[in-house]
Design brief:
With 176 residues, the protein is α+β, with helices and mostly antiparallel strands. It has one domain: Winged helix-like DNA-binding domain superfamily/Winged helix DNA-binding domain (Arc Repressor Mutant, subunit A, Orthogonal Bundle). A two-stranded parallel ribbon has the order 1-4. The longest helix is centred in the middle third of the chain and has 15 residues. The protein is globular, with a radius of gyration of 20 Å.
């Protein structure tokens, strides 16, 4: 039986040449530089689930205190979480960690990872799923264009932004 191949994204313009590394301008590579550690995703998951305190992240994500401390520091430095001081009576001041708008914008990526894991890693389906609080409908993840069409990878074109839309030129680009 022949192996199925996924439809490829169509790379056009300077990107279509594929004659050198693209990581410097790749949003995926840059995102992984920020949240590529497993523990970073688990902390973000817990932040979306309502965790705000250090002990909650350690316990619920199942990570060590040094790892939690390092990831919280990194995610805060990148602006995905913000520290909010709090103080219990008779205790020293501590920090809670709250999602910022930048961090909250990662929710669709985490929801897509959850849907993928449910489909491919849990033969009998995972024990959790996302539903809409307003109507109870199950939440799916789909790529759509701004005209509302669902698109698959084979229908996607990847191209370099015009210089006016970006602050950094694409290597090998002939744009002025």
């Amino acid at each position: 039986m022949p192996e199925a191949t996924a439809p490829a994204v169509q790379m056009i313009g300077p990107l279509g040449r594929r004659d050198g590394p693209t990581n410097a301008y790749c949003p995926i590579a840059r995102t992984l530089d920020v949240v590529g550690a497993r523990s970073a995703f688990l902390i973000l998951r817990e932040a979306f689930y309502g965790s705000t305190r250090f002990e909650q992240f350690v316990d619920r994500a199942g990570i060590s205190e040094p790892v939690a401390s390092a990831r919280l520091r990194e995610l805060t430095a990148e602006g995905l979480l913000e520290k909010v001081p709090y103080r219990e009576p008779g205790q020293r001041t501590r920090n809670e960690y709250h999602l910022t708008e930048k961090g909250a914008d990662l929710f669709p990526a985490l929801a897509a990872m959850m849907a993928w894991g449910d489909r491919w890693l849990f033969p009998d389906r995972a024990r959790v799923h996302l539903t809409h609080a307003g109507c109870g409908g199950e939440i799916g993840t789909a790529l759509t264009c701004d005209a509302g069409h669902e698109v698959s990878a084979g229908e996607v074109q990847l191209e370099a932004r015009k210089r006016a839309e970006s602050t950094a030129p694409l290597e090998g680009s002939t744009a002025p």
